[in-house]
Design goal:
The chain has about 1000 residues and is an alpha+beta fold. It has 7 domains: about 25-200, Galactose-binding domain-like (Jelly Rolls, Sandwich), CATH 2.60.120; about 205-260, ephrin a2 ectodomain (Immunoglobulin-like), CATH 2.60.40; about 330-430, Immunoglobulins (Immunoglobulin-like, Sandwich), CATH 2.60.40; about 440-525, Sandwich (Immunoglobulin-like), CATH 2.60.40.10; about 605-705, Phosphorylase Kinase, domain 1 (2-Layer Sandwich), CATH 3.30.200; about 710-775 and about 790-890, Transferase(Phosphotransferase) domain 1 (Transferase(Phosphotransferase), domain 1); about 920-985, Transcription Factor, Ets-1 (DNA polymerase, domain 1, Orthogonal Bundle), CATH 1.10.150.50. The protein is about 20% helix and about 30% strand. The structure holds 2',3'- cyclic AMP. 2',3'- cyclic AMP binds near residues 631, 687, 705 and 706. One of its GO terms (cellular component) is dendrite. Its EC number is 2.7.10.1. It is a single-pass type I membrane protein.
């Protein structure tokens, strides 16, 4: 009995779609369902497998192969495909769809019926000829295929046919092609379809890069790295890459391309910008509309051209609108007094659309009637300068009496000079009509030493009023064109010091009255003496002062002068002598401690840091500590307050710093480093270490308790509550602690009010030790370009610039702490950015005196902030000075607010910047919002502002106390500046 018929009847299944063309990561090598003609597969023996081709409803063939010799034993029927070219495949997948009858469903077949068949393959480089014989042994077995589902039985006892799908991988395939073979050993099978494919990662566009079709590796765990090529009008940012996975999926996109200039991304491609738009930079940004006053006519523009009469400065970005030169300044005005001429104007009505507006003032001096005008050249002096002014005013000094001056004020911006338009100028003509003094008489040399020359001269014959002072201008004869110095004196003689030996100098003298300056006397040339000069002994009181200043004790000299002038505090001279002597023995060649004084040991020099802790800190049994409450959070863990019991002693309050759990070895070392440092100190103004807990958890550092916490928050909480003497007492304590540290060679690096602790008797103690860790910890510390973190506002410029930390840089920080204390915890430099702080210090700006600050203290601050670090006072100078102030509180009565006259400044008095407009000044103290209040109240010049009292400031509408304080502090400094300008010599 043949089962073929039975089988055919049950086999007629609906047509199944066997291949899925929407699978882009498969390349099909063979799909029997898609073959339209004869398949032409071979069978061995010919009557084993049967090829049946039916037609579907669309008249396409359905190729099936059947075999069902279940009744006969020893079946060995082979079906072999045609030769299948491998193409790029390294590994192929064979997907079989078939039905298989279970032997139980066929009567009388037990023993011969099978339920599996074998799948085999053979690789060859070319198809075998038609005459080639079939050798089963040439085929390698891929797998024995069994049905997942064969015929199953329904509840009603009917059998339902199920289609099986099996997929097998074969690889690596190395020859050019292969045959598949199906071996039947006695089963009842219908092979409905065979699909052979390999996998690939299909070509794709990703991140504006194109990736080609890529065949995965045979080894499924390794990926193929593929480099993409940027699409047209795109350029590489980071090399675009994708990885092709074994299943034909792209993985891990890296790098990218971006659209080039003039092009923007759209649907994965880079399209040209439309006319009227531009894109100046490569990047995945959209094209932008041309900025105002510019246009683009073509597609793909990288920039827009400026309209007529509009320009771009060389550094203007393409994104900026085109701009034009400004119109002329408006309403030029002048005011004149005896010594200074102030020019003021209003900004131009058209700034040209730019912000970089500056002004140039050109000066011409005109003689009497009919005489031609000529450039003023170096005759007059402009403060701050004649060119590149940012404000709308300038002071003109040193003009000659009885002359006519014409000033041309020009507004300039970044595109001035482009195009060919005439320069718009505003003109002011000023006549200095008052009669100035006539020339002084002949200048004589009285004597000369190696470094000084004494001069005298006859007073002007026609002074036309009281001589206010004389100005002596001098320069090295050889260096005439390069620079000159000047000095002033009230009497008709002077000793000019600081000169080079054996050098010829040229001197000019001129007199000043309320009406202005006389002309300069004719040149007088005098030489200094050489080393053997008999005149080489410097004498007289002025010389003593000069010597002292040159000796580097400028602070003391200034203060001496100041205090002498105020007619009090004679003790200071003695103190100065003692302090100088002490310093000479103590500080020669840097740090040399007194004999017997211990020197600080850096714990980092210990190979084993634990050893350092135990050398300098006592181990405390934790049972002696009682933690009461948490008072703050440190970087390493909580800071608590509590009590420490010591046998035979009174229980004492302590602060306990803890190291939180889960720390690393490095954190533990950094945490304990502070104890190793603190344990070396023994001074009433340094926080005292009681001991450490290292042998149990948590690790702790126990220090004395300071009832009032950190100084900055303490002062802010008690704003205005203390007398000046109390504040000076606190400062004295800090200076004394710092003197101790510098004496034993420890540089703190982070001295600031936040790192000072205060006890309930207002005693201040220096805390927060730990070298670099301190800075890591400090929220104020910012990274600098030289590396490392630095609290910029508290740090000396040399430490910021090249990490030159020293006791002298600690002195700078101490000056800042003084300022914090005197301003009750105000933030140094207010809201200025760190960068602005660095720049303004570099330009010579220093913090003004806080409101109510005694002159002597602000002077001390200024000396701590000397740029030259060797000129700063040492901590022992500071302690001595503060001690004297405390003993003579009368010296603290002169507040900066009250200063009406200021002593002659020595050469090293810091220079302050001169603000010329109210706007500049308010900008510099970040109070620009009040500009209109000043102007509306009639304060149009800084001169007038410098006379304002705190009541005036309140009256013009500054209601916030902090702002009042900041403005008044700065007004005090302005006052000093005016005095300083009027009274000091100038260096050009
Ligand atoms: O400003 P404060 O009250 O003072 O808050 C901080 C907080 O712990 C985190 O450092 C306070 N603090 C630190 N050390 C001590 C101490 N020895 N005595 C009292 N308070 C301390 C500090």
């Amino acid at each position: 009995m043949s089962f073929r018929l039975i089988f055919c009847l049950i086999f007629l299944l609906p047509r199944v779609i066997l291949s899925d063309p929407s699978q882009p990561n498969q390349v099909v090598l063979l799909d029997t369902t898609a073959v339209l003609g004869e398949l032409g597969w071979k069978t061995y023996p010919v009557n084993g497998w049967d090829a049946i081709t039916e037609m579907d409803e669309q008249n396409r063939p359905i190729h099936t192969f059947q075999v069902c010799h279940v009744m006969e034993p020893n079946q060995n029927n082979w079906l072999r495909s045609n030769w299948i070219p491998r193409q790029a495949a390294q590994k192929i997948y064979v997907e079989l769809r078939f039905t298989l009858r279970d032997c139980n469903s066929i009567p009388w077949v037990s023993g011969t019926c099978k339920e599996t068949f074998n799948l085999l393959y053979q690789e060859t480089d070319e198809p075998r000829g038609p005459a080639a014989r079939f050798h089963p042994a040439d085929y390698a077995k891929i797998d024995t295929i069994a049905a997942d589902e064969s015929f199953t039985q329904t509840d009603l006892g009917d059998r339902v046919l199920r289609l099986n799908t099996e997929v097998r991988e074969v690889g690596p395939i190395e020859r050019k092609g292969f045959y598949l073979a199906f071996q039947d050993v006695g089963a009842c099978i219908a092979l409905v379809s065979v699909r052979v494919y390999y996998k690939k990662c299909p070509s794709t566009l990703r991140n504006l890069a194109a990736f080609p079709d890529t065949v995965p590796r045979v080894d499924s765990s390794s990926l193929v790295e593929v480099r993409g090529a940027c699409v047209e009008n795109a350029e590489e940012r980071d090399t675009p890459k994708l990885y092709c996975g074994a299943d034909g999926d792209w993985l891990v996109p890296l790098g990218r391309c971006v659209c080039s200039v003039g092009h923007e991304e759209s649907d994965g491609l880079c399209l040209a910008c439309r006319p009227g738009f531009y894109k100046a930079f490569a990047g995945n940004i959209k094209c932008s509309k041309c900025p105002p006053h510019s246009f683009s006519h073509s597609e793909g523009s990288a920039f827009c051209h400026c309209e007529k009469d509009f320009y771009r400065a060389p550094k203007d970005p393409a994104t900026m609108a085109c701009t034009r030169p400004p119109s002329a300044p408006r309403n030029p005005m002048f005011t004149i007094n005896e010594t200074a001429l102030f020019l003021e104007w209003m900004p131009p009505s058209d700034t040209g659309g730019r912000k970089d507006l500056t002004y140039n003032v050109l000066c011409q001096r005109c003689g009497g009637a009919g005489q031609a005008c000529e450039p003023c050249d170096g005759d007059v002096r402009f403060v701050p300068r004649p060119l590149g002014l940012t404000g709308t005013s300038v002071a003109v000094q040193d003009f000659v009496a009885n002359a006519n001056y014409t000033f041309q004020i020009e507004a300039v911006n970044g595109v001035s000079g482009m195009g060919r338009k005439a320069r718009p100028l505003a003109n002011v003509t000023v006549s200095t009509e008052q009669a100035g003094p006539s020339l002084v008489g002949v200048v004589r040399k009285d004597w000369a030493s190696q470094n000084s020359i004494a001069l005298s001269w006859q007073e002007a014959e026609q002074p036309h009023g009281a001589i206010l002072d004389y100005e002596i201008k001098y320069y090295e004869k050889e260096q005439e064109q390069l620079s000159y110095s000047s000095t002033r004196t009230k009497s008709p003689s002077v000793i000019v010091s600081g000169l080079k030996p054996s050098t010829v100098y040229v001197f000019h003298v001129r007199a000043r009255t309320l009406a202005g300056y006389s002309g300069y006397s004719p040149k007088s040339e005098f030489a200094t003496g050489d080393e053997n000069s008999e005149e080489a002994s410097d004498q007289g009181p002025v010389l003593v002062i000069v010597t002292a200043a040159v000796g580097g004790f400028s602070l003391l000299v200034i203060l001496t002068l100041f205090l002498l002038i105020t007619g009090r505090c004679q003790w200071y001279i003695k103190a100065k002598m003692k302090s100088e002597e002490k310093r000479r023995t103590h500080y020669q060649n840097g740090h040399v401690p007194f004999p017997g004084m211990k020197t600080y040991v850096d714990p980092d020099t210990y190979e084993d840091p634990t050893l350092a802790v135990h050398e300098f800190a006592k181990e405390i049994d934790p049972s002696r500590i009682r933690i009461e409450r948490v008072i703050g959070a440190g970087e390493f863990g909580e800071v608590c307050s509590g009590r420490l019991r010591t046998p035979g002693k009174k229980e004492i309050p302590v602060a306990i710093k803890t190291l939180k759990g889960g720390y690393t070895e490095r954190q533990r070392r950094d945490f304990l480093r502070e104890a190793s440092i603190m344990g070396q100190f023994d001074n009433p103004n340094i926080i005292r270490l009681e001991g450490v807990v290292t042998k149990s958890r948590p690790v702790m550092i126990v220090v004395e308790y300071m009832e009032n916490g950190s100084l900055d928050s303490f002062l802010r909480k008690h704003d205005g509550h203390f007398t000046v003497i109390q504040l000076v007492g606190m400062l004295r304590g800090i200076a004394s602690g710092m003197m101790y540290l510098s004496d034993i060679g420890y540089v703190h690096r982070d001295l600031a009010a936040r790192n000072i602790l205060v006890d309930d008797n207002l005693v201040c103690k220096v805390s927060d030790f730990g070298l670099s860790r301190v800075l890591e910890d400090d929220p104020e510390a910012a990274y600098t370009t030289t590396g490392g973190k630095i609290p910029i506002r508290w740090t000396a410029p040399e430490a910021i610039a090249y990490r030159k930390f020293s006791s002298a840089s600690d002195v700078w920080s101490y000056g800042i702490v003084m300022w914090e204390v005197m301003s009750y915890g105000e933030r140094p430099y207010w809201e200025m950015s760190n960068q602005d702080v660095i720049l303004s210090i570099e330009e010579g700006y220093r913090l003004p005196a806080p409101m109510g600050c005694p002159v002597a203290l602000h002077q001390l601050m200024l000396h701590c902030w000397q740029k030259e670090r060797n000129r700063r006072p040492r901590f022992n100078d500071i302690v001595d000075f503060l001690d004297k102030l405390i003993r003579n509180p009368g010296c603290l009565l002169t507040l900066v607010d009250d200063v009406q006259s200021f002593p002659e400044s020595p050469e090293d008095t810091p220079e302050y910047p001169l603000f010329i407009s109210i706007g500049d000044w308010l900008d510099s103290i970040k109070m620009s919002q009040y500009k209109n209040n000043f102007l509306a109240a009639g304060y149009t010049t800084l001169d007038s502002v410098s006379t304002m009292s705190i009541d005036d400031v309140r009256r013009i509408g500054v209601s916030l106390i902090g702002h009042q304080r900041r403005i008044v502090s700065s007004i005090q400094t302005l006052r000093l500046q005016f005095l300083h300008v009027q009274q000091s010599g100038f260096h050009v």
